[in-house]
Amino acid sequence: MQNLSRLSFVILLMSSTEAYAYVDPGSGSVIVTTVLGLIAAIGYTCRKYFYKLKRMISGGGTNDEPKNDT
User: Fold this and answer.
1) Which residue, 1, 5, 61, 70, could crosslink 55 as a Cys pair with Cβ 3.0–4.6 Å?
2) What is the residue-level pLDDT of the chain in tens, covering all 70 positions?
3) Alpha-carbon distances, residue 59 vs 5, 7, 53, 67 (angstroms)
């Protein structure tokens, strides 16, 4: 049964039909901008948590002295 489903999946992928579609340059630039934005967001998030983890491990960033109110 599993081999039959794999075979039908391969046959489905191998059979091609014509698609009458047009992707204009505006759509392409939206896709590129979205991908670049996702990469930047992932990079920023990783950097943010890396520095949080680094601060937690090194013990920096905590100030035990009371602040002066003057």
Assistant:
1) 61
2) 677 788 888 888 888 777 777 878 888 889 999 999 999 999 999 999 999 999 989 887 555 555 665 5
3) 55, 57, 10, 19
